[in-house]
Structure formats: C-alpha cells, structure tokens
Specification:
Blueprint (H helix, E strand, L loop, with lengths): L1 E2 L24 E2 L10 H8 L2 H10 L10 H5 L8 H46 L7 E6 L2 E5 L3 E4 H4 E3 L9 H5 L6 E5 L2 E6 L4 E9 L4 H4 L5 E10 L3 E6 L5 H9 L17 H6 L1 E4 L2 H44 L7 H14 L1
Parallel strand pairs: 7-10
Antiparallel strand pairs: 1-2, 3-4, 5-12, 6-11, 7-8, 9-10, 9-11
C-alpha cells in the first residue's frame, strides 16, 4: 500500500498476510505482485528505495498537495532479476535492515534517556531552585506539593502579561500571494511560514493554545520568539512583568503539566482564562537569572552528547537507504553466502 500524496514521505506499508477484506482511501495505491514473476518483499523494498522516491517526487503534481497520478504510478519501472535472486535480495535486506533498525532503536533510546535526564534537571531547577539546603513549605496546589519558603505562589496572569489581542491569523491563501516574505509567522508549535509584515518586535514567550500537542507533548509547548514576527490565533503571547527573565519562564511553563487545565477531547484547548489562573511558584528576578544561567550551562553539556547520537542515527539511516537502493538496482549483487553471513551476524547479536 503506497500513499500517492506527498511521495517524499515514502508512506509505504507491506502486508505479507493481508486479508481480502481491507478498505483504504483513494489517496493510496494498492498493488499485489504476481508471485510467479515478482517477489512481494522485493517489490516492497523497491518501492521504498531512493530510486522510487526520486521517480515519484518528479512525477508528482500540485504545490500544496503534491500527488502521483495513476498513470505515472503505473509507469514506474521495476527491475526484474530472476525470482530466486529477488527472494535472496529480500531475505538479505530483511536481516540487514532489522539489524540496522535495532541499532537505530538503541540510539533513540539513548537520546530519550538523555532528554529525560535533561528535563528532570531543568524541572528541579525551575521549581525548587539551586540550593539543595533551602527551606521549603507545603502548598495546597495539586501540582506544587512543596516550594522554597522564600518563593511566591502566584497565578500566571499575576506575573505575566498577555498580548493575545494583537495577534491576527492569516490564511494560507493570504500568505501565498505575498511576494516579500521576510518575517517569521508563528503558530502553536513554532514558525510555520514567512510573511511580509510583522506584529511584534522584541522577545516574547509563545505557548500553544490548541492542538493535540497540548496532550502529546511531542514538541515544546512554550518557546521564545525574538525579533520582528507575526503570530496567528493558535498561540498565546506573553511577557514577564517587572523585568522577569524570559528564559526562566519558558523553562518553568514547559516543565508544567498543563493537561490539568486543558479542555476538549476532540480538539484540546488551553484557554487564556485557564492559563492565566494556572499557579506557579516563582522566585525573585535575581534568582530567576541565576537559574537561567544554570540551565544554559547544563544545555551546553547535553548538546554535544545529543548531537553525537543524532549524527549516529543519521549515519545509520543513510546507510539503510543506500543499502536498499544498491541491492534493488543491482549495484550490489547478493549471493547465498552474503545471506548466510548476514543471518550469522544477526544471530550473534541476538
């Protein structure tokens, strides 16, 4: 099953034991290789190869919604080595790709562990400060069981000013006719386009107002926007009062479980009223700046470690793509000995 829309994403699924009673939308091409001529596994690897991706991208039409038509899809040339060789290639790729995928998964797990540690360190800093001997007090706020005695318990709106009345949404059509797109156009999760004018000039805190990310947290909810930019109606715009530290409040808001005040199941929403009433424990400005300096120091320590893992993941991913491309195009010939060696290596790692 191959998505005909946005072929650069290579949305291809292989169903080796598919039922005859499956339904899919018209945005997919469903193919069933003739087993006497074409190995299903081999055809799958060809469809996810770099060769197929380049062909589909070149054949796609449409700007906002590029798609490959049936005629162009059917015109894709498929290399056809003898069936035993196809099966040999597919077996070799099954074993080799499984090993590469395992290595990638291990690296992703390392990255997730580092990220969890980084977030834990930051959360402790912005909610309890840097002094491990500080005297604390209990609170009656569900998400703030205790806080340093000298910190203040406040609502977001008490320490931050909203600028939501300034934001203006621009449709894709409005943005599409702009010729001099110079300034960042922000949505709920960051920059989504460029526009020819701006509404804000300075440094502000943006936090998502709606969308699934309020619950999934797959992207940051709170982030800084600096310079000249435009914001649509899917993000709250805030600024700390009394010269509060922007970076501190971004880290503090990002560390909170805001799902406690999110409403709506089908379309999660963080209203301005609920965000404004959300309670925080906040130190004085001088301590905010000390905590920000500490966070920046820790980020500097984590960055090269994460960058190294990201580089390793990229290398493994590129090697996987290259291996598939070489095998299905005949640039790399696979023998029975190659298959046995790959299987032996896999068994040793298991």
């Amino acid at each position: 099953m191959i998505s005909s829309v946005r072929p650069n994403l290579q949305a291809v699924a292989f169903f080796p034991e598919a039922s005859a009673h499956l339904v899919c939308s018209t945005g997919f091409n469903v193919v069933e290789p003739q087993p006497s001529r074409l190995s299903p596994q081999f055809s799958y690897y060809h469809l996810i190869s770099e060769n197929a991706r380049q062909y589909f991208e070149a054949a796609a039409t449409g700007v906002g919604y590029p798609a490959v038509g049936d005629k162009d899809f059917n015109a894709l040339a498929v290399p056809l080595p003898p069936l035993p060789e196809q099966q040999r290639i597919a077996t070799y790729l099954d074993v080799s790709c499984a090993a590469i995928d395992g290595a990638i998964a291990a690296k992703q797990s390392q990255r997730a562990t580092l990220d969890a540690l980084r977030k834990s360190i930051i959360k402790h800093a912005v909610t309890m400060g840097l002094n491990s001997l500080v005297k604390t007090q209990h609170t009656d706020v569900e998400w703030i069981p205790e806080m340093p005695q000298h910190w203040r318990l406040v609502r977001v709106k008490d320490v931050m000013e909203f600028f939501n009345t300034i934001r203006v949404p621009l449709s894709a059509a409005d943005r599409g006719v702009m010729t001099e797109k110079t300034y960042d156009y922000y949505g709920a999760s960051g920059v989504i386009d460029k526009v020819e004018a701006y509404l804000f000039d300075g440094t502000y805190i943006l936090i998502a107002e709606d969308g699934a990310n309020l619950l999934t947290r797959s992207k940051p909810l709170a982030f800084l926007a600096s310079g000249k930019f435009w914001v649509n109606n899917h993000a709250h715009i805030l600024k700390p009062r009394w010269d509060g530290d922007n970076a501190f409040f971004v880290a503090l808001l990002e560390s909170q479980d805001l799902s406690l005040v999110v409403t709506g199941a089908a379309q999660p929403k963080l209203t301005m009223a609920n965000l404004g009433r959300f309670k925080l424990a906040v130190p004085h400005v001088a301590e905010q700046k000390q905590i920000t300096a500490f966070i920046q120091e820790k980020e500097t320590e984590f960055y090269p470690l994460v960058a190294q893992i990201e580089s390793q993941i990229s290398t493994l991913t590129a090697y996987r793509k290259s291996l598939i491309h070489e095998c299905v195009t005949g640039q790399r010939r696979i023998s029975e000995a190659d298959v046995r060696r790959a299987q032996s290596r896999s068994e040793q790692h298991d």
